[in-house]
Amino acid sequence: EIVMTQSPASLSVSPGERATLSCRASQSVSNKLAWYQQKPGQAPKLLVYGASTRATGIPARFSGSGSGTEFTLTISSLQSEDFAVYYCQQYNHWPPCTFGQGTKLEIK
Amino acid sequence: EVQLLESGGALVQPGGSLSLSCAASGFIFSTYAMSWVRQAPGKGLEWVSTTGSSGASTWYADSVKGRFTLFRDNSRNTLYLQMNTLRAEDSAVYYCAKVYDGHFDNWGQGTLVTVSS
Q1: Which residues of B touch A50 (CB under 8 A)?
Q2: Is pLDDT of A94 > 90?
Q3: Which pLDDT score is estimated for A70?
């Protein structure tokens, strides 16, 4: 089973600033990596798939990068609605597909 | 617009059974794999099970293998999860999710399962 490790566990950033979230896989997952956003009381929402392709309707301030074992989600200029928990998921080797433990993005 | 509507969550005693449903609309259900993903209170996301578009192939997480059964009725655009021998650690919000190339492009709002005496 591939283990996905996200860092940091939590991140405090001021609105308008840039946030960088990391996700590491225990072995190569090629570019089969997705990012999800989850707000309290809501279902997760797909942001990025294929490591760098934004899902439909996702603003351009969200960008994904990386391949192999190291991945990054960057939010270029944080808006109030971006404060949430973010999860990465690998889908190169499954079953099982595996998620990271999440990064909580908080307002500074 | 894709819609996934879960139902069937409830409070159930340890060792009991429960059946969840997910009614799908807004896409051609029979052409997509479908999954259940769960989230224990205050915890992260855990993949539970996936079935292929026809239902002929199904995969399970080790934590539920032998206890949960996933099946689908393409004539009713509905996905089901039969959960038997439930344990306290199965308590979670269960999300139905549409699968696209291995990732989950649409999610339902979730249904809460609580296993407690």
Answers
A1: 101
A2: no
A3: 98
